[in-house]
Amino acid sequence: MTALFALATAVLWGLADFGGGLLTRRIPALTVVVVSQVVAVLVLGAVVLGTGAWHEAGPQLWFAVGAGLVGPVAMLSFYKALALGPMGVVSPLGSLGVVVPVTAGLMLGERPGLGQFAGIAVAVVGIVLAGGPELRGAPVQRQAVVLTLVAAFGFGAVMALIAEASTTVTGLFLALFVQRVTNVTVGGAALWAQTRRGIPALPAGTGPRVLWGLLPALAFVGLADVAANGTYSIAAQNGPVTMAAVLSSLYPVITALAAFAVLKERLRTVQAAGAGLALAGTVLLAAG
Description:
There is one protein chain. By secondary structure, the protein is mainly α. 77% of the residues lie in helices and 0% in strands. It contains twelve helices and no strands.
């Protein structure tokens, strides 16, 4: 069950990142984050009301608040780093966030077998290579590296925090709702501050109508991200966190494959090799 839900997480995160990347070509990244999360809040709010999940409110929801605070910071740091580039360096570094939940699992006493350790090592190398790292001395601004490492730590912290935010399915609905409300609060405040400084929330010459046209895509990104957090939480609660974290972090492979299938982007040799290594690591982990 852990492997199944973790792989589902990778697919959902990979597709959400792909959709988010496409949307940021049309509207600012912060607007994408806020609007997509507002949709997620509305859907999760209905689910919480329908299931009576609010009855499971408790101290563990502070983990969800923490994930909600860290998530927007990580995402915006990652987008900013991608803008500074080069993407071929930033993207693989961003995937190193897997180290955070893996370390947390080891500190909590998990001791994977030799085959699983080998699987973790092979999969992490594959994940990094799947991002298509530029290995020929591409210039990298120090700010881009710092922002990417902040994003990587943030992504990993969200994985670790959300796994601790609930112990039941209905509790998970409530935790995800709290996380998303926090996301919208933090992101909305940042968007308001940005507009106060004269930076528009939408491209010049457009208005709210552009959001209506993109609403289905924005809803998909927000809901896919929520679903990914949910499947990851289930994976981490039903098996080793180390396995759940590594398998879930295969999402760069999914993003690269989606770009290949939809945008006809050719996979570089290093990306194809990385995808193969990630698959091999997955097999080792599942077999272990």
